[in-house]
Write a structure and sequence with these properties.
The chain is an alpha/beta fold. It folds into two domains: 307 residues, Aldolase class I (TIM Barrel, Alpha-Beta Barrel), CATH 3.20.20.70; 104 residues, CBS-domain, CATH 3.10.580. The protein is built from 19 helices and 21 strands. The strands form six sheets. The protein has an eight-stranded parallel barrel with strand order 4-5-12-13-14-15-16-17, surrounded by seven helices. A four-stranded mixed sheet has the order 6-7-8-9. Helix 9 packs parallel to helix 10. It binds xanthosine-5'-monophosphate. The site of xanthosine-5'-monophosphate has 26 residues, from strand 17.
C-alpha cells in the first residue's frame, strides 16, 4: 500500500466515470475466466471465487437471485424488507437457498418399513424427492425406497415389501464428498446412505448433487456443500430475534445494513449482536469516510460496506447533500483499515468497467443492485406498459419490473406496514430512495458471467495475472494507472449515443 496516499490524492472528489486506467504491458496469454484467480475476501472467514454480491434490496435479492449468485461464485444478501414482525418470510428465503444443493444431505427424508406405500408416495410427491431412506424407530438404516419401487403397486402394501433391503445396499460410514464419489463410481450407484457405528442414518449422498457440484466449480458453498447466503437484519426493532432465526436456518453471514453506519445506533447494534451471537460472521455498513471505516473496524466487524449515496435507487445525496464520491470513499476506507477488514464496494456500479475500478481501488468485493434490476430472478410482478416508439409513432407493449431504493416511500411503507395507519405522516419518514420501472429481461446469470469476462479483460489490460495482483500493482504505483479525465475525455470514454 506504499502508494496509497498518492492514490487518494489522484481520486479525491472522483467517482468511477472521472478516471480511466492506463493500459500496461499484458502478460496473460488468454483471458480465460476459468483460469484467472479472482478469489476475494467477503469477510474475515468467507472467501468468494467471484467478487460479486447482490444487494439486500426487496426488488433485487430473494432466494432465486441468491441461488444464481452463489452458483456463479458470488453471494446474495436477502433483504429484510418484509413487513415488520415478518421474520418467517425472510427465514424461508434463506432455507430455500440452503436446500438447493447438498454435498452430504445430513437429514434425508425417511419412512418406516411399516408405513404404507400410499404414505411414501405422498411424501415423494410433496417433497419432490424421488427416493426415501427406510429407517426403524431408532433411526437405524433398514433399506431404500425409490420411485421405481412403488410404480404400479397398490398403495395399501407396506414399504418393507418393496424397498431394497439394507443387506443389498452399498453403505458407508460418515465419509466426505470426495470419498463418497469414488465409492459411487466404483459401485455404479446413484445414492449412498451413510451410517454411524451403530448403523444410525447420518447422511445421504446423491449423484445428482455431486454432478451439480462438478458443473459449478466456482460456486460459493459451505462445509456441507450447501450454497452460501447472507441476510440483512437492520439495527433496530426485531433485529436480534431476526438474527437468531436466520442463524437457526443456516444463514452464513449477517449484514447490519443502515444508511449511516458511522453512528451510535450501529455501535449499540453491533455490541448486542456480538454479546448474543459471539463471533458469528457479521458485516456492517454503510460508511464512506476513513473515520467511519475505522469506527466499524474498531467495533470488530468482519466486513465493512462502503458507499454513501452512489446507489442507482438512492436519493440521499439529492435530498441531504451528504455523501462521498464512491471512488474516493473506497480508497479512503481501504487506507484507513488496510487489509485488516474486507471492504464491500456498495453501489454506483452501472457498467462492467466500474466493477474493475471498484475492485482495484479498495473493494475486496462489490455489491450491485440496479445492474440486476428487471432480471428473471428479481422478485416482483412483470407489468406490461405501453411505450411509444419514435419511428412511425407506434405504441408497443413492453414488460417492466420495479426497482426501488430500500429507503423509497414504497419500500418503507411495506416494511413498516403503515398502509392503514392514520397517524403516520409519510413525509416525516424522510425517504431517501427512488422507485423506477425497468424493462423486464432474462436471467441474471449471463449478466454475472459477462461482468466476470470483462473483469478478466481488465486484469489483462492492467498487466496482472490475477485480481489480487492488479490491486497490488495499482496501489504500489497509482500514478502509472490512474488518469483523471477532462470533460471531453469523459465524454469520449463513457458517453455513447
Ligand atoms: P446500485 O447502484 O448497484 O446500488 O443499484 C445498490 C446499493 O444502493 C443502496 N441503496 C440505497 N441507498 N437509499 C440509499 O441511500 C435507498 O433507498 C437505497 N436503496 C439501495 C444500497 O447500499 C444498495 O446496496
Amino acid at each position: 500500500m506504499s502508494g496509497g496516499k498518492t492514490l487518494l490524492e489522484l481520486v479525491r472528489g472522483c467517482t468511477f466515470d472521472d478516471v480511466l486506467l492506463a493500459p500496461q504491458h499484458s502478460v496473460l496469454e488468454r483471458r480465460d475466466p476459468a483460469r484467472i484467480d479472482l478469489a476475494s475476501r467477503l469477510s474475515t472467514h468467507l472467501t468468494l471465487q467471484r467478487p460479486i454480491v447482490s444487494a439486500n434490496m426487496d426488488t433485487v435479492t430473494r432466494a432465486p437471485m441468491a441461488i444464481v449468485q452463489a452458483e456463479e461464485g458470488g453471494i446474495g444478501i436477502i433483504d429484510r424488507g418484509f413487513r415488520a414482525g415478518q421474520i418467517d418470510a425472510q427465514v424461508r428465503e434463506v432455507e430455500i437457498v440452503k436446500r438447493t444443493q447438498h454435498g452430504v444431505i445430513p437429514d434425508p427424508l425417511t419412512v418406516t418399513p411399516e408405513a404404507s406405500l400410499e404414505h411414501a408416495v405422498g411424501l415423494m410427491e410433496r417433497s419432490g424427492v424421488g427416493s426415501l431412506v427406510v429407517v426403524d424407530e431408532a433411526h437405524r438404516l433398514v433399506g431404500m425406497l425409490t420411485e421405481r419401487d412403488v410404480r404400479f403397486v397398490p398403495g395399501t402394501r407396506r414399504v418393507a415389501e418393496r424397498m431394497t433391503p439394507r443387506e443389498r445396499l452399498v453403505v458407508r460410514g460418515p465419509i466426505g464428498v470426495q470419498e463418497a464419489e469414488r465409492v459411487m463410481v466404483e459401485h455404479k450407484i446413484k445414492k449412498l446412505p451413510l451410517v454411524d457405528r451403530d448403523d444410525h442414518l447420518v447422511g445421504l449422498v446423491t449423484a445428482k448433487d455431486l454432478l451439480k457440484q462438478r458443473r459449478q466449480p466456482f460456486a460459493t458453498r459451505d462445509a456441507q456443500g450447501r450454497l452460501r447466503v447472507g441476510a440483512a437484519i437492520g439495527a433496530k426493532g426485531d433485529y436480534l430475534e431476526r438474527a437468531a432465526e436466520l442463524i437457526k436456518a443456516g444463514v452464513d453471514v449477517l449484514v447490519i445494513d443502515i444508511a449511516h453506519g458511522h453512528s451510535t445506533v450501529m455501535a449499540h447494534a453491533v455490541g448486542r449482536v456480538r454479546a448474543r451471537f459471539g463471533d458469528f460472521e457479521l458485516i456492517a455498513g454503510n460508511v464512506g469516510t476513513a473515520e467511519g471505516a475505522r469506527f466499524l473496524a474498531d467495533l470488530g466487524v468482519d466486513g465493512i460496506k462502503v458507499g454513501i449515496g452512489p446507489g442507482g435507487g438512492c436519493s440521499t445525496r439529492l435530498t441531504t447533500s451528504f455523501g462521498v464520491p464512491q471512488l474516493q470513499a473506497l480508497v479512503e476506507c481501504r487506507l484507513a483499515v488496510g487489509d485488516a477488514v474486507p471492504i464491500i464496494a456498495d453501489g454506483g456500479i452501472r457498467r462492467d468497467g466500474a466493477l474493475a475500478l471498484a475492485l482495484a481501488c479498495g473493494g475486496d468485493t462489490a455489491m450491485l443492485g440496479s445492474v440486476f434490476a428487471g432480471t428473471l430472478e428479481t422478485p416482483g410482478e412483470v407489468v406490461q406498459k405501453s411505450v411509444l416508439l419514435a419511428e412511425g409513432q407506434r405504441t408497443v407493449q413492453v414488460p417492466f419490473k420495479v426497482l426501488r431504493g430500500m429507503a423509497s416511500i414504497g419500500a418503507i411503507k411495506d416494511r413498516l406496514d403503515v398502509e392503514d395507519a392514520e397517524d403516520v405522516d409519510l413525509d416525516a419518514l424522510g425517504a431517501e430512495g427512488l422507485e423506477i420501472s425497468v424493462p423486464a429481461r432474462g436471467s441474471a446469470r449471463p449478466v454475472i458471467q459477462d461482468m466476470i469476462k470483462h473483469l478478466c479483460s481488465a486484469i489483462s489490460y492492467g498487466g496482472a495475472r490475477s485480481l489480487a495482483e492488479l490491486r497490488r500493482r495499482v496501489w504500489e504505483a497509482p500514478e502509472r494507472y490512474v488518469i483523471r479525465l477532462s470533460g471531453a475525455a469523459r465524454r469520449e470514454s463513457y458517453e455513447r449515443p
